[in-house]
Amino acid sequence: MSQMEQYLGFYNDERNSALLYQAMADAEKDERLAQVYRRIAQTELRHAETWAEKMQAAGASVPGFRPTLRTRILIWLTQRFGPGVALPAVQGMERDGNAGYTGVPGAGAMAAEERSHAFLFRQIAGTLRGGMEGGALAQLEGRHRSAGGNALRAAVLGANDGLVSNLSLVMGVAGATLNEKTVLITGLAGMLAGAISMALGEWLSVQSSRELFQHQIEVERAEVEQSPEEEAEELALIYEARGLSRENARTLAGQILANRESAVETLAREELGIDPGELGGSAWEAALTSFALFAVGAVIPVIAFTFLQGLTAVAVSIAFSVVGLFVLGAVITLFTGRGVLYSGMRMVVFGLLAAAVTFGIGRLIGVSIGG
Predict the structure, then answer these.
(1) What is the model's pTM?
(2) b/e burial code for range 119-128 (CB count within 10 A of at least 16 → b)
(3) Dihedral angle of Cα 15, 16, 18, 21, to the nearest 10 degrees
(4) Quick one: which of 303, 324, 185 has its CA closest to 177?
(5) How far is residue 195's CA from residue 189's CA, in Å, rounded to a whole number?
(6) Which CATH class is domain 3-127?
């Protein structure tokens, strides 16, 4: 890679990052956290300007900027689901940015800022519990943890579960008998059974979590009423562990405990990691979403058997499934930062291996039964 290509790559990366951070700021309801995103966006624009100046100094013109497809998709998801959905992606972007600047002349200060951004995003995502700098803590105080990124990844994986499990089931039955009606009925039954099982499991999981969270909050409420001094000390210790001085931590904890109701909410977030306003989300919404996503993935291998027969139906079913698996693998790259081809083909290979095993077992069983 030439030096000019490297400069252009850095320039585009910083512009894409700045655009995404601005979208996160616009979608963020907590103004203090929105300000954090805006300041990071301004830093990324400053980095981009540095690379633009280097290109111009070398006698090259700066091309017009166009955001990448990945950036446009992440912005749409952020606008639709909130900034939390983009946190896993931006953590990877900042980590890659720091690594990319390593050893590049004149990029030392920018690499340090990228490391700082990566650390801050880890704090926002709740992946680290200690060592937060006091100023950042003040900006993030009261922030509800968002599970948007995790939820969306879970959605992709739910659809993948439906596709792979039903593809394996359909291929197993097709290996035993090429009767398209038998395969179709089995595939539809597997889709419904799997989707209902997923929905029920998700409902039980979320509802149980909600009931547990409610109980824990009530226990916390009783402790605030009975032993406010002890709760204030616990809260102060949490803030000390995150970087505040002992005096400032005690002052902040005392101010929070002055209002008992808001104190319970704060303690629930800080000690238990629970958002009292959400309690893990709606059990019914989670169940219906799981049902729909599993069904969408599971129906893909079945479609071909509605209008084709024999090995032709098997081949087309596999082709549809390959496309579905590749698309799901490509979607995951929004969060992992891996190449689309690598992630897509990895998903395809694993899915086809599972289908090949069940088809082979089905063929052996079919031959054995058939005599």
Answers:
(1) 0.59
(2) bbbbbbbeee
(3) 180
(4) 185
(5) 10
(6) mainly alpha
Q: How far from each other are the two terminal CA atoms of the chain, in whole angstroms?
A: 63
Going from N- to C-terminal start, the domains of the chain cover: 3-127, 150-208+282-370, 211-272
User: DSSP states of 119-168 as a string?
Assistant: HHHHHHHT---S---HHHHHHHTTPPP--HHHHHHHHHHHHHHHHHHHHH
Single-letter amino acid, residue 214: Q
Q: Which two tokens stand for residue 15?
A: 């512009």
CA distance 303 to 307: 8
Q: Which two tokens stand for residue 311?
A: 């090995």
Q: What is the mean pLDDT of each run of 10 residues along the chain (371 residues)?
A: 83 91 89 83 90 88 89 89 79 68 73 70 53 36 39 72 92 85 92 91 85 79 77 74 76 80 75 67 82 93 91 93 91 73 89 91 71 45
CA dihedral 235, 237, 239, 242 (to 10 degrees): -140
Question: Most distant CA pair in the chain: distance in Å?
Answer: 83
**In this structure, are residues 3 and 104 in contact, taking their beta carbons and an 8 Å threshold?**
no
How far apart are the C-alpha atoms of 132 and 113, rounded to whole Å?
16
Secondary structure tally for the chain: helices H, strands E? 14, 0
Q: For position 1, what pLDDT does the model report?
A: 60
